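Lay summary. Proteins are chains of building blocks that fold into shapes, and those shapes determine what they do. In this project we predict the shape from the chain. Here is one chain we studied, written as its sequence of building blocks.
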Amino acid sequence: MEFELGQIVVSLLQFTTVSLLLWSIFRYPVAPDPPVNRQIAMALGLAKRDTIFEMPVLRQLMGLGVLLSRRFPFFRGRIRQDLEASGNPLGYSVDEYLAMCLASAVVMTALSTLLLMAKLGQFDLLLVLVMPVIGFVVPMWTLHGQASKRVRAISKKLPYTLDLIALLMEAGATFPEAITTLIKDEPEDELNRELALVQAEIDFGTTRSLALANMADRIPLDALRSVVGAINQAEALGTPLSTILKNQSGMIRMLRTVRAEEASASASLRILVPSMLILLAVVIVVFSPIILRWLEKGIFAQ
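And here is the predicted shape, written in a compact code that computers can read:
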């Protein structure tokens, strides 16, 4: 009787601990925050998506996940930055992507537990603790990879775009007209998509400096922040913008050259250790027959 009472007390304490932990995590609700491209699409009446949140079968479950994610305080800034940097073509909000991460954790844990029970017929507590973490991290890692790939593509295209804008402005076009021409010429380019968002924000009443600053916040590139700062400064001081853009393009190319030289200098040091290992392996392969023959003669001599 005392043993059963002790088990009941321990179970109640465990339940209370888990309940308090969940309550402390989900006690503060967070207001939904649609991304800027979804806001623009909603304003234009183009907010049509084909995601898991629009599927009739899973809509209610994912809606419950969104409600839970609004009270989840962790990783929100990281997910928001990666969503904006990746372009977010499906228009996910932070709450929706967090709900997908939570759903991935639940599904991966359930599938791994069922497979383990079906094959081995036993329950593994370590697996239950590890698989939710893996399931939660995989969507975040995938999103971060997409964001990094897109940022690299924008960084590669930035100086050429600045040169084109400068040439168009020297030909008589204004800055918005030059941006519009680039967008129409290559609308699928990632940098042009960001410029299209800038143009849309300006059309909705945002100042050019604020729209460009929002683009610099979405894309974590030091070169882009420098270009935006130079454009805003040129607008305030009345400096010819085409000249500023040419100078910024030249500076970006110069920085790339410096980084390439630094990478080539460090590559010689990094390759030193593999070269020494390869040399050691070649020495062993060449002299091992001589060493083995000497050892055999020494053994037989004894």
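What the prediction tells us: The chain has a mean pLDDT of 79.
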